[in-house]
Design a protein that fits this description.
2 helices, elongated, three-stranded antiparallel β-sheet, alpha+beta
């Protein structure tokens, strides 16, 4: 590796306020929503409990209830572990571009469409790149906020 450390995901502590160009105006900012994050993790835990318990029953395991405990525990630990980071990522919308949590910019003219996937808004560029704005309180309203 070179002197500059490679990051797969942006780090919360490396975020800063966006530097706007002359004439550029900040319209809105998008951060994760805590109640939405919790609801999504409760839904994942319930779905996981059903799938795992069902699989254990199908295999003839007499302790299928352990699937419920395991699923809820796993999702709870994961949720607590990454909550600060996932909820802290902030995207900024200006009159010209979207500025990501890692400083990456996406010109508004290069956004082909915005998909809604559960509580996330997915930006798809003309070149096919995809970016997720996760845990939005109203993901369906996100595309219309420009």
């Amino acid at each position: 590796m070179s002197e500059q450390e490679f990051e797969l995901e942006p780090r919360l502590e490396s975020q800063s306020a966006p530097e706007l160009e002359p004439g550029e105006k900040l319209i809105d900012s998008f951060s994760g929503n805590t109640p939405t994050y919790v609801k999504e993790h409760v839904m994942l835990a319930a779905l996981g409990a059903l799938v795992i318990s069902g699989a254990l029953m199908a295999m003839g395991n007499p302790h299928a209830w352990t699937g419920i405990i395991g699923s809820v525990a796993a999702i709870a630990v994961r949720g607590l572990y990454v909550a600060k980071e996932q909820l802290g990522f902030t995207w900024h919308l200006t009159n010209r571009r979207m500025i990501g949590p890692d400083g990456r910019t996406i010109l508004l003219t290069s956004i082909a469409k915005v998909n809604v996937i559960f509580t996330a808004a997915q930006l798809v560029t003309l070149s096919g790149d995809k970016y997720m704005l996760k845990y939005q309180a109203d993901a369906k309203a996100t595309p219309s906020r420009d």
